């Protein structure tokens, strides 16, 4: 047992000394207050003040607090449903700090780089809605089935595909987009650090210029070059695979891991043992 604990301790020590694993650990630890706050929102809206799945089904007087549900729903969305944004920014900051960078800009750059590979324009016809009938059967519909273009619009070749909307889908901001956020933050900040240390890429300003402005111009070219490279990676992925970077990483990394783990009791037991071992070594 002592030999096993010793080996486990060595693994833990290696993980703690590894720049990237340590940065990921710190990012999640720093985001923990937000995660727990989001959990409070989930507890409030699903377990306490809810007349179908929560305490409200057993004790109706508590439903007088339902007017506050929008607050806790927003808190849940801003934390748990946006965890990828927070973790990406914190991880970028941690990597930059490990590389000798200071200030808040690396976190901003991490967000910018993630946004560059995240789709923000979608076809409105793909919006969907569903319901479950009395027999328990699910029925799904897409908005495209209800769009019928006629008249002047049809003459100008307006179709269901012409209706679009912009934004960031929850699929990308929630936990399903974490792998992309982690990879972009690490790779992007290492590229940025490489350019930042190249003196020939720094724009030197006169001494009379305020330090904040001088600093902004100093990292201007490294920032632009990093953004261009990350954007190019996203474009190449789109052209080569037909999928944007988030979908590509999900299919190449996350799906195989999910298939490897499986959904049987033995796989879940092994997974939780591994999780517990990682907790033991911090």
Number of helices: 12
Strand content bin: 5-15%
- Please list the strands of the largest sheet in the order they lie side by side: 1-4
- Overall shape: globular
Radius of gyration over C-alpha positions, nearest whole angstrom: 24 Å
Structural class, from helix and strand content? mainly alpha
Extract low-pLDDT stretches.
none
What's the total count of β strands? 4
Q: How confident overall, as mean pLDDT? A: 86
Q: What is the straight-line distance between the termini?
A: 19 Å
Give a short account of the largest sheet: 2 strands, antiparallel
Q: What share of residues is helical?
A: 55-70%
Helix and strand run: HHHHHEEEHEHHHHHH
What is the element layout, followed by pairings?
Layout: H1 2-17, H2 19-48, H3 69-79, H4 83-98, H5 105-116, E1 121-123, E2 128-132, E3 138-142, H6 151-155, E4 164-166, H7 170-173, H8 178-196, H9 211-218, H10 220-241, H11 245-261, H12 265-280
Helix pairs in contact: 2-3, 2-4, 4-5, 4-8, 5-8, 5-10, 8-10
């Amino acid at each position: 047992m002592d030999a096993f604990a010793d080996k486990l301790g060595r693994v833990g020590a290696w993980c703690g000394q590894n720049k990237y694993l340590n940065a990921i650990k710190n990012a999640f630890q720093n985001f923990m207050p937000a995660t727990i706050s989001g959990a409070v929102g989930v507890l409030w809206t699903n377990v306490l003040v809810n007349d179908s799945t929560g305490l409200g089904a057993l004790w109706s007087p508590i439903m007088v607090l339902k007017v506050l549900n929008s607050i806790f729903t927003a808190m849940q969305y801003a934390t748990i449903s946006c965890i990828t944004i927070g973790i990406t920014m914190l991880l970028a900051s941690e990597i930059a700090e490990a590389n000798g960078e200071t200030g808040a800009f690396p976190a901003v750059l991490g967000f910018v780089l993630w946004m560059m590979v995240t789709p923000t324009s979608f076809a409105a016809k793909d919006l969907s809605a569903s319901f479950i009938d009395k027999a328990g059967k699910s029925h799904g519909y897409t908005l495209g089935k209800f769009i019928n273009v006629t008249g002047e619009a049809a003459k100008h070749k307006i179709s269901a595909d012409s209706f679009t909307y912009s934004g960031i889908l929850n699929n990308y901001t929630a936990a399903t987009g974490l792998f992309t956020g982690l990879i972009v933050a690490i790779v992007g900040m290492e590229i940025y650090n490489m350019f930042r240390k190249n003196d020939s890429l720094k724009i030197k300003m006169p001494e009379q210029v305020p330090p904040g402005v001088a600093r902004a111009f100093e990292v201007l070219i490294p920032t632009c070059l990093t953004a261009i490279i990350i954007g190019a990676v996203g474009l190449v992925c789109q052209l080569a695979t037909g999928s944007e970077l988030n979908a590509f990483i999900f299919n190449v990394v996350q799906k195989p891991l999910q298939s490897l783990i499986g959904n049987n009791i033995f796989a879940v037991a092994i997974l939780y043992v591994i999780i517990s071992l990682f907790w033991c070594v911090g």
